[in-house]
Each structure stands twice: as C-alpha cells, then as structure tokens.
Amino acid sequence: MKTESKYSFDEILNQFNKKIDQLVENIDFIKSKVETELKPDTLFTPKEVAIRLKLCERTVYEHLKQGKLKSTRIGKKLYINSQALTDFIQHGTKN
C-alpha cells in the first residue's frame, strides 16, 4: 500500500542536505576551537581551568600549591599552559 507524501523527494533530499551542511559546520567549528585551545602556547587562568575541569577554583589552587598542576607566573598572575593541563588530566592527581 503506497501512501502519498506532502513533500516531494527533492524537497526531502534538499532538507536532508541542509541538515548535513549544518552538522559539518558545527563539527568544523568545534574542531577549530579544540585545535586553537590545545595549542602548546595557549595559557589558561586558574579560573578557566576550574571551568574546564568542572572543579572549584579553590581546588585548582590546591593542585597548584601541591605541585600536581604546573603553572607559570607572569607578573602577579598565574597561568597554566595547555601541556601542563593535558599532563594533569592524563596523570590525574598522582604526584
């Protein structure tokens, strides 16, 4: 039994292709954000690290104080480079 559709095959295909294009754009956007944010020279503040790891900012400072998370001081501010953040994530709190 064949049922009639109110949309033609071409209309459905066109909508499908639009959705695929949107998904590809989203993937490209996410990929560019990840590549940008994980470059070795990228610096994060303790607050940014806390947000990324879903930790309290105080916990990040404790890890810094204990030497479990490496940082660089520039002037009066602390920064964590992406390599130190990656190492911390890979090795957890073991140090």
Short key terms for the protein model shown above:
single chain; 95 residues; mainly alpha; Arc Repressor Mutant, subunit A; 2 domains; three-stranded antiparallel sheet; 4 helices; 59% helix; elongated
Characterization of this structure:
There is one protein chain. Strands 1-3-2 form a three-stranded antiparallel beta sheet. It has helices at 9-37, 46-53, 57-65, 82-91; strands at residues 43-44, 72-74, 77-81. Helix content is 59%, strand content 11%. The protein folds into two domains: 9-38; 43-91, Arc Repressor Mutant, subunit A, CATH 1.10.10. The chain is built from four helices and three strands, in the order αβααββα. The longest helix is centred in the first third of the chain and has 29 residues, at 9-37. It has 95 residues and is mostly helical. The model has no long low-confidence stretch (mean pLDDT 84). The radius of gyration is 23 Å and the shape is elongated.
The CATH topology of the largest domain is Arc Repressor Mutant, subunit A
What is the top-level CATH class of the largest domain? Mainly Alpha
The number of helices is 4
User: Do you know the CATH architecture of the largest domain?
Assistant: Orthogonal Bundle
Straight-line N-to-C gap: 68 Å
Q: Cα-atom Rg, whole angstroms?
A: 23 Å
Main β-sheet, spatial strand arrangement: 1-3-2
Helix and strand sequence: HEHHEEH
Number of strands: 3
- Give the overall shape: elongated
> What structural category do the secondary elements indicate?
mainly alpha
Q: Identify low-pLDDT runs.
A: none
- Strand fraction equals 5-15%
Share of helix, binned: 55-70%
User: How would you sum up the major sheet?
Assistant: 3 strands, antiparallel
| Average of the residue pLDDT scores | 84
What's the number of domains? 2
